[in-house]
Amino acid sequence: MSTYKELLEKKAALDAEIEAARREEVGAAMSIIRELIAEFDLTERDIFGGSRSSSNLPTSKVRKTVAAKYRNPTTGDTWTGRGKAPKWIDGQERSQYLIVS
Fold it and tell me: Which of 17, 36, 57, 77 is the most buried (most CB within 10 A)?
């Protein structure tokens, strides 16, 4: 059975070997890619599409503010009726706090 130190040395050697193999394979892949780009006269736009600003990346949705539905007559605090109820209305009849438009 190997010792901890020996295993660490083997791991370091294996990590170096993995990195060398990766560099070699990436280099070969890049050569093929460059040849194909030159052969077919491809542009960055051909490969990746338009620029990032005009790409089909999802845009974040704009959140709309929701009008308050309930008002605390004592403090004037409001609540939309969404999410966890505030302490001033929690467990009480909500109709008494309803904002009438």
Answer: 77
The whole model's pTM is what? 0.43
Among residues 75, 57, 71, the alpha carbon closest in space to that of 101 is found at 71
End-to-end CA distance of the chain: 80
Structure confidence at residue 63 (pLDDT): 82
| 4-62 tens-digit pLDDT | 999 999 999 999 999 999 999 999 999 999 999 999 999 999 888 876 555 555 667 88
State the CB neighbour count (10 A cutoff) for residue 95.
Answer: 7
DSSP-based three-state secondary structure for 93: coil
Q: What is the C-alpha separation between 70 and 80, in angstroms, rounded?
A: 6
